[in-house]
């Protein structure tokens, strides 16, 4: 039943072609724009304090990503976030590298204090650090520290009063009461920079067309994981470069029928 809802949500994205306003990092900008286009969404990157309020209010979703943050952009993120909040536009935060430096951790917390964030998507270390837990992080990568990811997702969602998506081998999504695990994905995703950042923007595209943010986020991670599995299957004897290109192809070619066939989701009772 959830599988059908997920495939219908993918179809909605493609029917609506939502505008997704991204304030993101310099590493992933082009990949993010191409990934959103390939999926069937309409990306825009806009950063100037003079225009972000206007752009955010006409978008279907606003994505804030602190990957290569600086004080000017952070100000723009807060202006854009407040404008999105006033217009009922969902805001998705990717706290890239939270925990790696005090500035990143403090900035993620400042954005959360000033803007009503609807979904936070990060690796386990980033989410833990935003929630005030100690969790070792290696630059922008999650690293090898271990702990209970499901418990962390639930406690963070309760504490921050927002939907939390912690990604990794499995993706855990919780609003503090209901929790789902998405099992789709492929290790090749960790060999291409920006796959986490693009996923956050893909969640934005799904949130733009589906008000139930749990469904939107679960649909996004599931679709994304299935597309990655298909891309890996088509590039088995190749490296990350070929995978990256094929993954962009599969973001466009993975259909609702593929989702019905390959999605793997568990609800935590
Ligand atoms: P990190 O920097 O730690 O890689 P990230 O922000 O890039 O974090 P990921 O957690 O890697 O984000 O998530 C990006 C995508 O990669 C998600 O779809 C996730 O399910 C997938 N993914 C990550 N690791 C694996 C893995 N070992 N096996 C399968 N899929 C994975
Ligand atoms: N450095 C700053 S942002 C960035 C790097 C390498 C990209 C991180 O992308 P992702 O999606 O978290 O792997
Ligand atoms: Mg990554
Ligand atoms: Mg990341």
Automatic annotation (TrEMBL):
It is an enzyme of class 2 (transferase). Its cofactor is Mg(2+). ATP binds at residues 121, 167. GO terms for biological process: thiamine biosynthetic process; thiamine diphosphate biosynthetic process. Substrate binds at residues 45, 194. Keywords: ATP-binding, Kinase, Magnesium, Metal-binding, Nucleotide-binding, Thiamine biosynthesis, Transferase. Coiled coil: none annotated. InterPro entries: Hyethyz_kinase (IPR000417), Ribokinase-like (IPR029056). Catalyzes the phosphorylation of the hydroxyl group of 4-methyl-5-beta-hydroxyethylthiazole (THZ). This is Hydroxyethylthiazole kinase. It comes from Peribacillus glennii. The gene is thiM.
């Amino acid at each position: 039943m959830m599988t059908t809802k997920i495939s219908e949500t993918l179809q909605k994205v493609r029917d609506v072609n939502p505008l997704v306003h991204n304030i993101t990092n310099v590493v992933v900008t082009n990949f993010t724009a191409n990934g959103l286009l390939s999926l069937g969404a309409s990306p825009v990157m806009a950063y100037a304090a003079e225009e972000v309020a206007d752009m955010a209010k006409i978008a279907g979703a606003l994505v804030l990503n602190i990957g290569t943050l600086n004080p000017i952009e952070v100000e723009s993120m807060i202006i854009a976030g407040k404008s999105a909040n006033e217009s009922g536009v969902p805001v998705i935060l990717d706290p890239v590298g939270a925990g790696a430096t005090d500035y990143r951790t403090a900035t993620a917390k400042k954005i959360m204090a000033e803007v009503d964030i609807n979904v936070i998507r990060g690796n386990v270390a980033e989410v833990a650090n935003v929630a005030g837990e100690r969790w070792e992080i290696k630059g922008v990568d999650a690293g090898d520290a271990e702990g209970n990811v499901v418990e962390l997702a639930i406690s963070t969602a309760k504490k921050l009063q927002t939907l939390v998506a912690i990604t990794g081998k499995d993706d855990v999504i919780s609003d503090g009461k209901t929790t789902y695990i998405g099992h789709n994905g492929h290790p090749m995703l960790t060999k291409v920079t920006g796959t986490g950042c693009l996923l956050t923007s893909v969640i934005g595209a799904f949130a733009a067309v589906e008000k139930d943010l749990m469904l939107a986020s679960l649909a996004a991670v599931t679709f994304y994981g299935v597309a990655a599995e298909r891309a890996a299957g088509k590039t088995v004897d190749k490296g990350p470069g070929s995978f990256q290109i094929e993954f962009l192809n599969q973001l466009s070619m993975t259909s609702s029928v593929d989702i019905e066939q390959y999605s793997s989701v568990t609800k935590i009772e």
